[in-house]
Amino acid sequence: MRNDLIIGLDIGSSFVRAVAGRQNASGKLEIIASGKANTIGNILQGEIVNIHKTTAAIAEALKKISGALEGKNTDYYFASNLSGSHINVQPYSSTKIRKNPREAVSLQEVYALIDEAKKPIAEKNPCILHTLPIGFKVDNLPTTLDPVGQIGQKIQADFMVVTANPDKYGLLVQCLVAAESDHIKKGNVYFSPIAASTAVLSPEEKEEGVVLVDIGSGTTEISVYQNKRLVQASILNWGGDRLTEDIRIGLNVSLENAEALKTTFGSAVSKLIDINEVVMIPGIAGRKPTPISVKNLAIILEERLKELAAKIVAEISKVGEPQTFKSGIVLCGGGAQLPDIAELFQKVTDLECRIGVPMVVQNSHASEEIHDPSFATAIGLVQVYYEQLDQAIPAEDHEPATIGDSQKESGKGGNDKPGIKNIFSRVVDVLMGSNEAEGEY
Ligand SMILES: Nc1ncnc2c1ncn2[C@@H]1O[C@H](COP(=O)(O)OP(=O)(O)OP(=O)(O)O)[C@@H](O)[C@H]1O
Ligand SMILES: [Mg+2]
């Protein structure tokens, strides 16, 4: 059992969501506090466009949970996320002739290979968020996630490399550092789907093949997993807001009414709606109320979501035959709350589809809404951090996607946790495999 609380900070286009969580006595993740603050207009399509207001929203969300944090002399660490279409996820392969072919492959050798693989990527873009191993191949031996101990002349490593636009990453860091308080400081940044997938996908689903679709307000993140690994990811710069906009135009209503219609009366399957079902929208300044057909509302939503379903199939097809992804599609994010959305995706894609709700224990300070697909990323951030701690190895000279000390305290944090911060980029790589053998890394 681990006692330290970790804070997950999901910075989204509609809300900053903050949760504080820890493992309870039975090893389950317990969320002891949650809070959110609005970011609408200040983060567009996952990218920060107003530094001051985003910083204020982060600070507000943190304030909402800070009352539940015990021990004012304790420093709390946070994990935050980065999203937006500037993020690039690409496969990368590196081969090396081994110096001593008769000696077993060592852990250090594997790390050196990962470091070497990063160099040419870093020359083009130094902002590498993650280097996620897909597999290692020593001579003609089968590809493995754990080559340590194998013998051979040549070793090949395949990775997924996640890079971000350095300026956009810098803006996030700037906001996080500005919003840090005396007790909540020092954090790590993860590619959003890494967090959400940890909260809502099971290891079995990741092994069998699954696609996670996080429908936010300004983005939709599609990430594909196979053999426990992230094998494909892309971020669309539209999400639930596009649906609202379609309703606004299609039904000639205000944006506010379009959002209310979507979230209160929307459905993704129009044939389930009676043709006579009508909602009255109050008229402005004494004008007559306007009748809105609920079936038309559903038709608009269904058409746009069919487009998304086609994109999902296209993403899966980049890495394999869709039908071989036996665990199908899992939906999360606020957009996954639309009634009948799983049925629609299942019908259009012919893949099984379910809604991904984080499975956590809720403490009395946390709100009911943590059991909601829109909390997948915030909760997953806490989980990712914990999994890394569980797999922590002695620190070496790795530069992680870590913020806090370097920007703020010149690396001399008073209450630092030795061996934790400096290993993150490496351990998150290992973590993505969730392979027992990899725990040894
Ligand atoms: N019941 C509902 N039915 C349909 N859509 C909903 C419902 N509830 C919320 N949404 C939509 O979910 C979206 C917000 O999702 P979420 O909170 O996951 O976004 P975000 O994480 O802030 O943004 P992003 O991930 O795009 O940066 C909005 O478009 C909102 O309209
Ligand atoms: Mg989101």
Automatic annotation (TrEMBL):
Residues 395-419 have a biased composition (Basic and acidic residues). Belongs to the FtsA/MreB family. Its main location: membrane. Self-interacts. Interacts with FtsZ. It holds the Pfam family FtsA. It is found in: Cell membrane. It is a peripheral membrane protein. The keyword Membrane applies. GO terms for cellular component: cell division site; cytoplasmic side of plasma membrane. Cell division protein that is involved in the assembly of the Z ring. May serve as a membrane anchor for the Z ring. InterPro entries: ATPase_NBD, Cell_div_FtsA, FtsA/MreB, SHS2_FtsA. Keywords: Cell cycle, Cell division, Cell membrane, Membrane. Residues 395-420 are annotated as: Disordered. GO terms for biological process: FtsZ-dependent cytokinesis. PANTHER family: CELL DIVISION PROTEIN FTSA, CELL DIVISION PROTEIN FTSA-RELATED. This is Cell division protein FtsA. Transmembrane segments: none annotated.
